[in-house]
Amino acid sequence: xxxxxxxxxxxxxxxxxxxxxxxxxxxxxxxxxxxxxxxxxxxxxxxxxxxxxxxxxxxxxxxxxxxxxxxxxxxxxxxxxxxxxxxxxxxxxxxxxxxxxxxxxxxxxxxxxxxxxxxxxxxxxxxxxxxxxxxxxxxxxxxxxxxxxxxxxxxxxxxxxxxxxxxxxxxxxxxxxxxxxxxxxxxxxxxxxxxxxxxxxxxxxxxxxxxxxxxxxxxxxxxxxxxxxxxxxxxxxxxxxxxxxxxxxxxxxxxxxxxxxxxxxxxxxxxxxxxxxxxxxxxxxxxxxxxxxxxxxxxxxxxxxxxxxxxxxxxxxxxxxxxxxxxxxxxxxxxxxxxxxxxxxxxxxxxxxxxxxxxxxxxxxxxxxxxxxxxxxxxxxxxxxxx
Length: 387
What we know:
Layout (H helix, E strand, L loop, with lengths): L6 E5 L4 H13 L4 E8 L2 E9 L15 E2 L4 H14 L9 H4 L13 H5 L20 H10 L16 H14 L3 H13 L4 E2 L20 H12 L4 H7 L11 H5 L7 E3 L1 H12 L3 E2 L2 E2 L3 H7 L4 E4 L6 E4 L4 E2 L13 E4 L5 E5 L4 E7 L11 H13 L1
Antiparallel strand pairs: 1-3, 2-3, 2-14, 4-6, 5-6, 7-8, 9-10, 11-12, 12-13, 13-14
């Protein structure tokens, strides 16, 4: 596992056990480099980091290190859509085609915006073959989705839109605001709150990025799922996961970082996630900056679907752009936590009852058929034991 890392940053004495578990993850769960942050009642109580940004363990994780957080980005994108709805510019019950006329193709003329956020749209994949380069071509992806026939009748079930979520929700944001998702998020959310969070990363920030490290061995459940995918290469699960094909090192490529892929290529750290979700936990405002009204937050976290996922072999409980606790995977013991995790392990969530914001970012990818990484499960348990 390498030498024991030095943990830096600040941690209130009340949360000493959280720091201990964070350190334990390096020796027991194969952590390489990571950061963890918590806010309670709008106050930072934990902001720690440790380990390394490289596999050789020569470059220490720094206070300002950031990493790609994969699907944790979806929560950032959802906030943008809810901000537009809060301002009366976007009606979540209106047809997507009201804002994006080309979307009306293939019988989608009445599909409501909310189905994009709740993964009920039936558009988790594009059936036509797409090369990897299509990931970086916004027009190509949105045109393909506008033409795509739903894989199921929208609203009849839900299935995780792993990559397409970002272009679907993102194109609505772009049509309504006149700005790309990355620009809108920067100007309307990250900038006002002072967050080190980006959807589309400028080249001058590359030096601060902790490259992601692929898992050494695939989880058995992951191998079983991939065997099912390969058994039906034209099925919805295969098309969702393999079209376009993502090279193993895709997140470390400049073209990936530069593009705006609002379902998967956000770059940030735990401090920014904890602050953002802490603001939402407090009702959407802090220090004179309002990201969402309290009513908008309550609307965003209302559960839309709960049950077997039509794409992933999981039970999922989904609100409007956020995951909420399910019987199998809980974000703590309280009744209203919401947030989003990312492939490999990152996580950001809010607990309005505890007025808690949580952020965790790492560079060692762990893959398995779960929504909450085992490292995060341990950390969450420690957090609530300290509250």
